[in-house]
Fold these 2 entries.
Entry 1:
Amino acid sequence: MKEVVLTAKEATAIEGWSKPSQQRSVEILSRYPDKRSAVMPLLYISMIENGYVTEDGMRQVGLLTGLSPAQVQSVASFYTMYKREPIGDYLVGVCTSISCFLLGADDVLAAIEDESGVPDGESGGDGTFSIEHVECNGACGGAPVVLVNWEMIEGVTPEKARELVRWLRDGRPDVVNTEEMQRLFGGKRAFDWGVKEPVGAILPVPAFGPYGSVGGEAT
Amino acid sequence: MKILTERMEAHRTDSHTIERYEATGGYTALRKGLLELGAEAVAAEVKASNLRGRGGANFPAGVKWGFLAPAKPAYLVVNGDESEPGTFKDRQLLERDPHQLVEGVILSSFALDVHHAFIYIRGEYPKPARRLQDAVDEAYEKGYLGSDILGSGFDLDVTIHLGGGAYICGEESALLNSLEGRRGEPRIKPPFPAIEGLYSKPTIVNNVETLSNVPWIVNNGGVAYARIGPDTSAGTRMISLSGHVENPGNYEIVMGMPWREIIYGLGGGIPGGRELKAWIPGGSSAPWFVPAEHLDVPATIDDTDSNGSMMGSGAIIVMDDSTDMVKAAHRIVRFYSHESCGQCTPCREGTTWLERILYRIVSGQGRHADIELLLDISDGISPGLTWPPLMTTICPLGPSATAPVVSLMQYFRHEVEAMIGDDDG
């Protein structure tokens, strides 16, 4: 891994970011031979800092990677996980691809839309939820699956999906954790997951250590 | 016979830790490869193993390695963008035995004279990515990664890269564009990645499962691997069973058992006393199989291919007699329509129209002319609707969307006609 030192202009671009996010950005840049490759990880960090992929965020990422804002936008707009509008605290995704569809995913999605009052593809007025149907998330043996901030629950029924929505709305957990949600709202899983993992997601960004989106032990 | 899942089945709680990995023979292949065999011999073992790529295309891995151009630097990129509907095997390999992959990556990089490897994990897999990052960090601490690995003089860095939610990035040249910080659009080939890949340098792209086999091959020899299973479907492979089956899950099998045994033996048959109606043998882009014709076909790469479908990514999706096949086909086509990158007109427009017309039919607004229209649009994407499919597009995504349409019309045309009913406009 190479040594990376930000120029004054680059450092100024992200001086509004938290210190850990600034440090992580430098570390991410050091992991690639070409700084353009850091666009995707840095877009996730910008979502952590700005709440979603904002125009400022795209400018900031562009300054760090040597790209114009338009070039950054061309990347951000290609991938569905970069949200370019404000989203709720809990991004609830329901897989409705073929294996989940065969086992009743459409009913699970309908239950979540009804209980949250937020239609598929939209965000609720109070900023709690964004609801979306997603394409195959790779746990088809545990269909149907639901994701909260990309942490997965398998074997979800419409009734359990309603309970999940109420649990999120009333409890507003800081960290969503697969093990806890699976125990409360899940059923059959695709495979034995081994040891339980205490960490989870704090934001609607994939919970990955190098990006700083991992939360500590859930209650 | 288990190669990939032996450790995780024997040690259900800690197979992902470096302590367990080392206590069960982990990183011995690395010592053997780096300190005894040498790079050429490691590559020769992989070639001799007849290991075929497990990402979907089933191309022989050793042959692919042989195409790597001599220019330096060269790169190894691991494809962990597992996104083909029905497929969840790489998730299990990443979560439950990440060191097996890391050791495979180090050995393969050594064989290919690569000093920077990238592992591209789909963005929706944060937990597998966390496990893998932990494994990579541990490997650095133990001196299995970094400079002068095990005193061999070989240096290697590994970077884990998270995707952003795009199926197309499983296509290797799209993945490379994504890794370069671009839109995940497939590249026109040639040049193939082995000649001009990441940053226009020679690059080998291999699937997670493919490389997870490498430690065993180095330890036991390529010939021993080639002896497992049928000649052209050597070794074990992971299959992912889902849909209407009693025991869904991942299974590591020796290829060659008939499909009947996979669905009724491993899968435990169809729940609720229902009958099998059809199954998809290799991910949702594979043409469908039906019980009247295919239950006794051996599940090998070649037998599946000669019967008009593919083992692809190893994802088997089972549908019982309650399944509305028109809705199932629509759901699969909707996926490809959503995931089309938009570069090629036949795919961008064709998948969109296929989805809209199927939606019209399942919404009760279908017309009898829609059947020929669907086939005509499919023919525009994949001329002649042959198997294997011809393409008017840069990559196979477009032709993938035609498979469920063609299968629907081939086996269940009466269901489409019944759904359209008398509403002919």
Note: Chain A touches chain B through 62 residues (CB under 8 Å).
Entry 2:
Amino acid sequence: MLDLYREEIMDIYKNPSRKGRLSDANVTTAKKNPMCGDDISVQMKVEKGVIKDAKFDGSACLVSIVASEVLLDFLVGKSLKEAKSVTKEKLLDMLKLNLTTTRVGCATLALTAIQKAIEEHEEK
Amino acid sequence: MNVKEIKKDFPILKKKIGANDLVYLDNAATSQKPVQVIEAIKDFYENHNANVHRGIHTLSEEASDMYEDARAVVAAFLGAAHPEEIVFTRGATESLNMAAFSWGNKNLKKGDKILLTVFEHHSNLVPWQIVAKNTGAELMYIKTGAQGEIDMAEYEKNLSPEVKIVCIAHASNVFGTVLDIKEMTRKAHAVGAVVCVDGAQSAPHIPVNVQSLGCDFYAFSAHKMLGPMGVGVLYTKKNLMENMIPCQFGGGMISEVSHKSAEWASPPEKFEAGTPDVAGAIGLSAAVKYLEKIGMEEVRKHEVELNKYTIEKLQSVEGIKIIGPKDPVKRTGLVSFYSEKVHAHDIASVLNSSGVAVRSGHHCAMPLHTELGIAATVRASYYIYNDHSDIDKLVEGVKKALKMLS
């Protein structure tokens, strides 16, 4: 029962180390989930095409928070090119949360936000 | 009203969610279907299926008669003066789109105003945004109080002669607040505006008489009132129907066609292009008959009692905030609430693990949630097959979620 709320997930949910604001961010974006009103903002510090640090903030559910945390942990140290190549499937595979269809949208919110931010950054 | 007996008519309520009995509290999204409705649909396909109108053979006549009977049953249920005022659609959303495009595109122009409440469901908001863009008319919003109530003085202030249509939900799907449509319509008519009512959350729960309310349009869905999905109704006052252009064209809606042009059939056919969902209309008719057997006054009484019980119980849970009126009589059968610490989705997930089905999110009222500063709420909404024990399970589940996650 309640596979989603197992202990290691709850630990991340209660103390997300990547939640907050990054003062020296140079790539930022915000994304709303139209299905639930969740609102996630992502800030990244990018140097020479590599993500040096990243944080997320906003109002979100457990799935959204945990997915953002896992994703940002994975992305720090990676290049923008690598970040862009992360697919929805890859993220879900990293999460291993066994999500229902509706909540896949919660999980991929941060990913969509980051990819939008990178696109906008590259257009500049 | 005997809830135990009523429950027996709903096969799905025997379903288990994991090891738990299903407690279905998501009725504002869609209701469950009694065996009487399921059988009526099955009977149509097994014994009477044929296309309606113009068929000479027996089956087509049977199907046509059954379809028109369904229209008459719905007309009587709504207290409409004429069955022709009932147009079958795919649901309340299509009904409201029809009102917007068939009436709005023909009757609105630059300088006109469309008046709406801030809590309209997207279906009674987005079509009007498009019509406003098409015609140059302007959207205006009536401010509501913190509980979704309309201040009549404020409403009257907004009713300038430029207002040509007022678009309002009979009952808010988030706050639950029931509006005084009769009074609002009287005031709108006084400045020459017509009134379009979204009845999706009222037709299933509150006795409705469109002639007494006086409104010009009234839209609802079958699936929220024990009927099948994919069928809805747009009631339109007869005198308006002539001055509306159809928004779908094709078979069934014409009187004469040449290679160059066509003339429309009389209403309601004018607005029902193509083969209608005959089985769906028959299913809706069976649903109406089921509700009428119980009596809409009884349905309403039952839900007011459940409102009272739910509000009392949830108010005693620390950390839970209820939105909408505290007076159970002022709301339709639903209660929305939230916690500042635990996201609505997580509360809904934990509730689901005990078999309790509720909705979480912004309930298709995004601008309202933005205004309230709440990302999402949990909404428990009931119907004739819910009782106090269902509410107890809801409250238990909410407490469990708060304990686990905050």
Note: Chain B has a mean pLDDT of 95.
